[in-house]
Amino acid sequence: MPGFYSRYLGPKLSERVAELMSRSHDDQVSLYEELAVARATACEALALAQPLFDSEASVKLSAETKALMVQTLSQAMSSVKELVLAASRVEKDADDKVSLKVVNLIVQQIVVTISEVCGAEQLPLAEAIAKAIDERVRVPLSDKINPVVKVQVQ
Asked: Do both 117 and 84 map to the same domain?
């Protein structure tokens, strides 16, 4: 696995990182699952900090315990805030844009549709159109993201 941290990873962690890196780009940049985990953690931190807001229970807590509770709650809420801001930036940057993967998917669907409409009796025409599209329409994606799709019309 190429990368800055690869030489520091043990075999198990290296395998797990490689597995996660092989996921689709959309999965890798999606922050919603992390945001859900951060929010669940923040809910737990809020529940643990509840005695701070109860005057009777708060009196019984030491200053160190109160400080630790405030710090834990603050860190949990900061984590949620950072992930919300990051997710909103990703959404804003993607607004009114169509990814190259989507363009490629549209081109592939057009080729499949042409093949289906032409049918077996016009197979040479469908293949000629598919070949012309393949040669003339260039979508700059790697083979990993843009697998070769072969269509057989019967």
From this structure: no
Q: What's the start-to-end Cα distance of the chain, in Å?
A: 42
Q: What is the number of structural domains in the chain? A: 2
How many helices (H) and strands (E) in the chain?
7, 0
Q: Would you say 111 and 73 are in contact if contact means Cβ atoms under 8 Å apart?
A: no
pTM here is: 0.55
**Alpha-carbon distance values, 95 to 26, 30, 69 (Å):** 15, 15, 39
Give tens-digit pLDDT for 90-136: 888 777 777 777 777 888 889 889 988 988 889 899 889 988 888 88
Domain that holds residue 33: 6-94
> How many Å is the Cα radius of gyration of the chain?
26
For residues 79 and 110, state if they share a domain: no
One domain for residues 110 and 148 = yes
More confident residue, 79 or 130: 79
DSSP assignment of 23-36 equals S-HHHHH--HHHHH
Encoded tokens for 3: 């990368």
